[in-house]
Amino acid sequence: MRHADVIIAGGGVIGLFCGWMLARSGVRALVVDSGGPAATNAAAGMLAPSFERSLHGGGDALAAFSAQSLQRWKEIAPLLRESGGVDIDFDDSGVLCVAMDDTEAAIFQADADKCDPLDRAQVLDLEPALSSSARCGWMARGNGQVDPRRVRLALRRAIGAAGGAVRLGRRVNSIESGKAHAVVLENGERLHAEQIVIATGARLGGLGDLPADATFPIKGEALAVARSGAAPTRVVITGKAYLCPKADGRVVVGATEIAGDRSLNVDERRLRDLRAAAEAAFPALDGAEEIERWAGLRPATKDGAPIIGPAPSSPGVLYALGHYRNGILLAPATADAIVALVATGRAGSDIAAFSPARFNELGVS
Known about the structure:
The longest helix has 26 residues, at 59-84. It contains ten helices and 19 strands. The chain is of the alpha+beta class.
């Protein structure tokens, strides 16, 4: 597909979700996916807006958008599984936040206004393998997780099934906009479209008209150990680690946050601390086989909110990036917003706070 209605630059979960939803709406959508490392593959896949607001920023608008996107996941997960032919390990049985000491209890209380408070006995009743030193907890019913790697594979297949296309193994180097639009690939090839969506995560320099540092990477490291009978049965968050049990037999343990490091190397000491925190919460994981370890780059913004909407001075160019820790969670609602923008040219009120124009109007740079 050399000419499309919409070209999406970026093959992470945001770009792929946009491509799928556009294709489903009848738009000829082409996703340009370099096939390289993406924040999607490094993510744990939590769908847990109930424990993100005060800890990680973004304000009321992001909280509402997160809740909206969680609901969309519940509606669309079965369709993605059917369309992509892949079990995406969708689980909405709830997320348990556990305080292991009084300090953690005070911090988590700030995020727990819409969660069910639990005393120690109730926490242990839900997760019997938890350490008996757990103090208390909160249950976010309806929160959950997916497997991001399976989601990415399912989306690639679903795009094709819906009439769109994915161009693998090529990176978008620049964008030409004007009366006509084109993306220029690293090999010099030009692909033309009526509109272009920039969904490149933390890599923005040279694409569109925002400052190069409008998004920037925050490194995160994680590991996975073999799941045992005494492992958590759902996503469990503590003050020092989160644990996500996957259907394929892994328990994903994460994650660090390191600014100013763009490498994908992992640090032995930091991973050792993560594992120690997981074992403190679930002692039976002591000695569990380590399956893998990895690092990824989260696409952050200085105000903690994503960038979704039309480019300030480039008609026909749209942004969908900067989702930081919550790209998996926010993908369906972001894709809905992009579909509406492509169809009407107008941004809905639900994404007003995420406008790219704020980087000029408010001096965010």
